[in-house]
Amino acid sequence: MEQHRDGPLIQKVDCVRFHVPDLEAGLAFYRDQLGHRLIWRTKGAVGLGMSGSDAEIVLQTEREGQEVDLSVESADGAAARVEAAGGKVVVQSFDIQIGRCVVVEDPWGNRMVLLDETRDLLATDDKGNVIGNSAP
Question: Looking at the domain that runs over 11-71, which CATH code has it been given?
């Protein structure tokens, strides 16, 4: 099997997103009972740390379901590469606070959320509330 000359597209797991109907209840379970450290917080989501990884558990109230977000160098470049390989773009690239995001599918219908960190990372106050972006 031929390997792509630019190396692997997916760099790492960025986060696993879980829908919860109430953030405080989600924090009571994942932080208080299961021991995951709060990293950041917005009105509709919280990021929690996992031991041995910089990937996060993200609890959010906006969209039902579970999602795995994967890091790539460039969301726009990843979309083009997936299409060239026989996959398809399901949701065109769009801006997110830390960079860009795109939703794609492989030829078998497996959906992937690909994001890049082309903007600065989240900056938080001493309580974990997101207050903007800061240099990585």
Answer: 3.10.180.10
pTM tops 0.90: no
Query: Of 98 and 24, which is predicted with more confidence?
Result: 24
Dist CA 7 CA 20 (whole Å) = 36
> What average pLDDT does this structure show over 5-33?
94
Are the CB atoms for 26 and 62 separated by under 8 Å? no
Kindly tell me the burial class for residue 35, based on how many C-beta atoms sit within 10 Å of its own C-beta (0-12, 13-18, 19 or more): exposed
pLDDT (average), residues 66-82: 95
Assess contact for 101 and 75: CB atoms under 8 A.
yes
The answer to whether residues 15 and 69 touch, using CB atoms and an 8 Å cutoff, is yes
CATH class assigned to 73-117: alpha beta
CA 107, CA 124: separation in Å to the nearest integer?
39
